[in-house]
What does this fold into?
Amino acid sequence: MSDTPVSDPQMAVVVTRLDTLSEDLHEIRRAMRDLVATIGRLDVIEADQRNSNAAIERAFKELEKVGAGCEKRCSDLDRRIKALEDAQPLQRQSSEWVQKFVGLLVAAAMGALVTTAVGGRKPVMLTPQSNPAATIDQRRAGQ
It folds into this structure.
């Protein structure tokens, strides 16, 4: 408000309005300062947001590269597993044959041991130089 007394009533109204207008102007200036500060903070936040978005985009690109490498490795592993699965029946059959052969060898060795222990004779080993018919005849003659 004005410090000087005003005698004219119209002048008093004008002075009062000017005082009100001056206060409103000061309030507008204060609000403008606050807006400027807020806009400055928003600018900083926007810059941080742009940096974050750029970092996220780079991370996704790296993930895509890694994912492509993983897909290639997975397809390689799938092919290898498929090959092993395809070979599994043949592997099983070969394993059975080997087990049967080893079982026959063990049975033959046990038979030879039993024959030696029971009969007291050495087992006859056939060689390319031996004559099986003559060996059998010698055995029969020894009995």
